[in-house]
Amino acid sequence: MDPDEIDAEQILADVAGALVERETGRSQLYASEVREVEDITYLMPGVWQSIVNSLTSLDQSLAPHDEFVVGEPEGAGPSRRVKDSLKDLVRKSIFWYVNPIVAQLHRVQAASSRALHDIADEVKTIDDQLEVMQREDLHGRLRALETEMFGERIARLERASRSGQGQPAAAEAAQPGKAPAPVSDGAPFRFDYFWFEGIHRGDRNMIKTRQRQYLEFFGGCSNVLDIGCGRGEFIELLSENGIGGYGVEIEADAVKLSVEAGLDVRQADAFEHLAGLDDDSLDGIFLSQVAEHLTPAQLVELVGLAYRKMKQGANIVIETPNPQCLLIFASFFYADLSHVQPVHPETMKFLLTSAGFKDADIKLTNPVPRNMRLGKITVPDRLPGETWVDELNANVEKLNSVLFGYLDYAAVARK
Predict the structure, then answer these.
(1) Whose CA is closest to 53, among 77, 88, 29, 85?
(2) Alpha-carbon torsion 150, 151, 152, 156, what sign?
(3) Across-strand partners of 284?
């Protein structure tokens, strides 16, 4: 087609007709695709898509005329002048149509921004309410656990009464939710560690679940020693999985409870018991939450005795609070009066290696729940090259690793 044969009037008529048609249906289009929810106005995708389609169609209708000016100097030839005039006319013609939509988009953006802030405030309120509910639930579980431990204490007093070592009246006076009345025989006050540990350590099923991961180090063994076995959760796990073993515990009440449950638990001092065993007689040693109760000298002595009494190829597992997680100091570590000091995992690893153990390794256990950790932030629309979000989240991760990491660790080594 010759550029001089372009029917400018027809093109303008078509554009004007399209614009009139769009204007006539604009109110219906907005009524169907723009809605208000409270004070937030949402522009539905159909409006913007229809604008895009119209402009794309217009551009495509003018595109064939570009081939007539390829390589032609700017401003030269009648086709260029005609096309420039057409474009200028079209821009002026559609300005009155596009500009209100752009203004509407700005209003929608402002309303959306306000809405996001309102939503953030509402989420924060809901999160605070959930935190209160979680605390209330925690207090409820703690009261239930205290009631359970009072029941165990009553049973213990009844056992002592039957054996002539206690006063029956003490058992009758003990009630859930109240401390038993002090005896009137002038006996000195004694800190009840069995009662204290039962409240703060957790129920048996939870402890068994946590300790189940250590069974892999004692598979096929027949003589595993659990030092400081407490209520015998790990001894029960060994028995359930066909592994032979027994425990020693110095707390008489814990021993009685374990024996009544049919577990092989003996009341004995760990050092005296180990010293009385034959060398190379144990095919595994397990210590859970014991090392932190020992002085440095006692810990060194215990590790040395353990090495002498274990068979070649036997494993030792020492679980203890992880001082690299600072939350333990703000939560439970200093709540226990019998805790001496935490043991750094690298110190424990070096101690085992120095005693002669091989392949000493540290396994982090008992992670802090995710809802207690610092949360990362997300920004939906980030500008190119914007790095502050990544830097902030990297710092959040560093804080999480120090403050809210793993509450415990297990040092594992082989003789």
Answers:
(1) 29
(2) positive
(3) 315
Which residues are CB-neighbours of 231 under 8 A, at least 6 positions away?
Answer: 198, 204, 207, 254, 257, 258
pLDDT higher for 23 or 385? 385
* Residue 220 Ramachandran class (φ > 0 left, ψ -120 to 50 alpha, else beta): left
The residue with greater pLDDT, 407 or 113, is 407
Return the beta strands (E) in 195-309 as ranges: 224-227, 245-249, 265-267, 282-288
What is the phi/psi pair of residue 375, to 5°?
-95, 145
268 and 391 co-located in one domain: yes
Task: Tell me the per-residue pLDDT of 153-204, one tens digit each, with 9 for 90 and over.
Answer: 565 555 555 555 444 333 333 333 444 444 445 556 666 666 666 666 767 8
Q: Is residue 40 part of a domain?
A: yes
Question: Is residue 262 included in any domain, yes or no?
Answer: yes
Angstrom distances, CA of residue 335 to CA of 103, 319, 339? 62, 18, 8
- Which of left, alpha, beta for 262 (phi over 0: left; psi -120 to 50: alpha)? left
**Residues 233 and 350 both lie in one domain:** yes
The Cα–Cα gap between 242 and 233 comes to 15
Read off the pTM.
0.56
Query: Looking at this protein, which amino acid is placed at residue 208?
Result: K
* Domain residue limits at 80: 3-127
* Burial group, residue 352, by CB count within 10 angstroms (0-12, 13-18, 19+): buried
> In 261-406, where does DSSP find H-type helix?
270-275, 296-309, 327-330, 345-355, 388-403
Is 289 among the domain residues? yes
**Mean pLDDT of all residues in 132-147:** 59
pLDDT in tens, 39-77: 333 334 444 455 555 555 655 555 554 444 444 445 556
Q: What CATH number does the domain containing 243 carry?
A: 3.40.50.150
Q: What DSSP element (H or E) covers 35?
A: strand 34-37
Greater pLDDT, 241 or 69: 241
Q: Does residue 322 have a pLDDT over 80? A: yes
The residue whose two tokens read 């190379």 is 280
Say how far apart CA 152 and CA 254 lie, in whole Å.
Answer: 10
CB 261 within 8 A of CB 236: yes
